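QA checklist item 7 of 12: single-chain prediction sanity check.
[x] sequence parsed
[x] length recorded as 463
[x] structure emitted
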Amino acid sequence: MKPSFIFFPIAASALFLAGCETTSSHQSQLASFESELGEQSYSISSDSSQSADALDWWKSFSSEELNTLMDEALAYNHELQAGVERIAQARAELAASKSTLWPSLSASGSASRQRQSVDGSGSSYSSSIGAGIGLDYTVDIWGSEKASRQISEIGLLTQTLTEESLRLTIMGEVANGYFATLAYRDRLANSDQTLEILKETLDILEARMEAGRVSELEVAQQRSAVATAEASRASLATNLQTSMNALATLLGRYPGELEIDHTDLSGIELPSIAFGQPSELLERRPDLAASEQRLIAAGASVEIAKAARLPSLNLGADSSLSRAGFDSPTQTALSLAAGITAPLFQGGRLKANQQLAEAQQRELLETYYQEVLEAFREVEDALASVQGLETRESALRRAWEEAQTSFDLSNDLFESGRIDFQTLLDAQRSYLSAQDTFLAVQYDRLAAAVELYRTLGGGWQSS
C-alpha cells in the first residue's frame, strides 16, 4: 500500500513540470522570433535627425491650430473617455482578484429566547446567545491563485495598451481630418479660380460668336466646360462640409459647430520622420504590446488549468463564544482543520480544459507572429508611400508648371488667331486638371506622414 501514498505527489510534480516545459517552450519560440527581427532592417533607410518618439507627434507639423484641436480631442472625445472608464473597470477587477491571495474571515452571531409551558406550573423561559469567527484559507501550492492575479494584472495592462492604440488612431483621424479640410479649401479656391477663367473665356467666345468670328459649337463646348466645373465645385463644397462635420465629431462637438481659421495647407510643414530597427517596433506599437500581454495571460491560464488537476490544501479555523443565559458562564470553543482535496475522476474534463488552454496559447502565439508581420508590412507600405508621393509631387509640380506655360501661350496664340479653339480648350483643361491634381497630392503626402507615425507607434508612453 505504501507506493499508493506517494503516487499523488509524484504524479502531481510530473504534471506540473510538464506544463512548465510547455510554457518555457513557447517563451523560447517567442524569444527566437524576436531575435530574428533584430537582424532585419527596413527597405528604406532613415537619414533624418528628427525622432518619432515625441509623445505629441502632431506638433512636428508646426500648426498651432492642429495642436489646439488635438488637445480638445484628448479632453472631449467620447471614445477616449469611454476608454478611461474601461481602464477603471479593469483596475476594479484587479483589486477584486487580489482578495483570493488572502484568507477569508467571516463572523456570525445569534440570540434566542424560548418559552416552555409546564402543566400546572406555568411557563419557563430560557435564553442563549453566541458569536463566532471563522477563518478559511486555500494554500496556493501550485500557483493557480497567483496566475489568476497575473491574468487580472495583464487585463489592466492590456486594456491600457488597447486604449493607447485607440488614442493613436483617433489622433491620426483628427490630423487627417484637419489636413483634408484645408486641402478641400485649397481645391475649392482653385475651383473658384477655374470657374472665373472659364467664364471669362466664355464671355469672349460669346462676343466673338455675335461678331461671326467663332461658331456656336465652340461656345457650346465652353458652356459645357463651365457647367462641369460648377458641378465639380459643388462636390468639393460637399466634401469640405462632411470633412468638417467628421472632425467636429472627433472633438466631441455637434456637427456643424466647428470653425477652422486656417484657409489652406500653406504653413503646414511636412515632417521628416526618423525610424529605428524593426525590433524596436515591438516596444513602440501598443497593439503589439497588448497582443504579447494576451499571450502571457494565456500562459497563466495554462497554469490554472494544470493546477485544477492537482491536489489542493485548505486550512480552516473557527472560534466561538456561547452562553445559555445572561447569568450563565461563557463557553468557548476553538477548532483547527486542514484538508487535502484531489480530483480523482472528472470524466476527462480537467485534462480537456488543460488541452484547451494549451491550444489557445498556441493560437495566440501564431496570432502574435502574424500581427507582428502585419505591423512590419504596414510600416514598409507607409515608407513606400512617403517615398513614392515625394517623387509624385515633384513630377506633378513640373507637370502643373508646364501646363500653366502651355495655357498662357495658347491664350496668346488664340488671341492672334494662330490656333483654333479646340487647341486652347485642350490646354485649358490640362492646366486646370494638373493644378487640382497637384493640390490633391500635397494632402496625400501629409496623410502618408500621419500614417507612418501611426504604423511606427506614434508617440505613446508605456509607463
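[x] summary fact logged: The chain has one domain: 12-103+142-307+351-455.
[ ] second reviewer sign-off
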